[in-house]
Amino acid sequence: MGDRWLYDRIEIDEQTIDCEQSTVGLELEFGERLPALRLPRLTLLSAIDKATDCILGFQLALTPDPQQDDLLALLKQCMSRFPERKITTSGLELPAGAGFPGSDSSLPLPLPREIAFDNAWIHQAYSVESFITKELGATVSFGRPQSPTVRNSIEISFNRINQHLSHRIASTTGSHVTDPKRESAQNRKGVPMMPLSSFEEALYITLAEANNRPRAHLGSATPLEALRHQSEQVYITDVDDDRRSEWNPFLETREVRVHDLSAPKRRPYINFEYLRYKGPGLLTVTGWRPSVQVRFDRRDIRQLEAFSLDGQSLGTLHCPSTWKSHSHGLSDLPPITKPITA
Fold first, then answer.
1. Which residues, 6+ apart, have CB-to-CB distance to 342 below 8 Å?
2. What are the start and end residues of each CATH 3.30.420.10 domain in the chain?
3. How many CB atoms within 10 Å of residue 207?
4. 244: part of which helix (H) or strand (E)?
5. Helix (H, G, I), strand (E, B), or coil: what is residue 318?
6. pLDDT digits over 61-107, tens only?
7. I want to staple 314 with a disulfide (CB 3.0 to 4.6 A). Which of 75, 119, 195, 306 is the partner?
8. How is the beta sheet containing 193-195 ordered, strand by strand?
9. What superfamily does domain 9-246 belong to in CATH?
10. CA distances (Å), 52 to each of 5, 75, 108, 122, 171, in order?
11. Residue 81 dihedral angles phi and psi, to the nearest 5°
12. pTM of the entire predicted model
């Protein structure tokens, strides 16, 4: 443990789970009217407290290349309270007691001093750095390139997950090309399937059990016991629940230009992500090359909050009606707008 106390350093990393070549496939279900979709690869994002070895949360991305929104969702989960997950899969059972600090109201939530990443592009996104440094007041540490042992706690945590869950699905990432458990072409025609929800529940239980398993380097205490003990021995920085509830890592602000103010027969608009957003509040904007500030949630950009440059509210701006039927965020636009080639 060294001289670190709880929440001094949180380590975050990702691991690919390869279920394309596994003997048990994972499928995403769309209800009764559509067939299930077999998933080729998933990415597991996880956060761990360096001092206590306690896993703070996890996030599953349904692609081999996670987006910054997946990382922001993990950060929000780690810093918030959440109820214990309800297990619906037959044969799975949660360990006694809380599985994570966020599901135990008697344990303090993280307000870290340092968050350690590797040098992946999503870790260097402005939205990630801005939330960590401005909202959490923490330091972002990227470490040395190609040095995974610098973040040994999270790497050891992934190894435990491989041993107890993900590598029990044969031929996942890390298995060699001649692995005898690799499925044959004949078996591939009728692969037994596991719903993604069941895999998520198994992953939740695996991580909860890891937080409740005694560790030799913690003096035979469990990570949750070590975290509780340290929280009673040292003063830690914390904020009240009201302020935590206001934290939204998905909230962003941009300055955009207003168009067509001088055209009396046309409604003024702004260009945002290649779409025209309009609202009555833009009629009050004046000046040469006028601009406004827009605030939005990255997960749903069907409407934006507009403000003048001096902070006066201009109401809500709406996207074209053809884009209003379904929720969509910034990460959804590239695959939607990308031209389809034969």
1. none
2. 9-246
3. 24
4. helix 241-246
5. strand
6. 988 889 999 999 999 999 999 999 999 988 888 888 889 999 999 99
7. 306
8. 37-38, 25-28, 193-195
9. Ribonuclease H-like superfamily/Ribonuclease H (3.30.420.10)
10. 8, 18, 13, 26, 31
11. -80, 145
12. 0.84
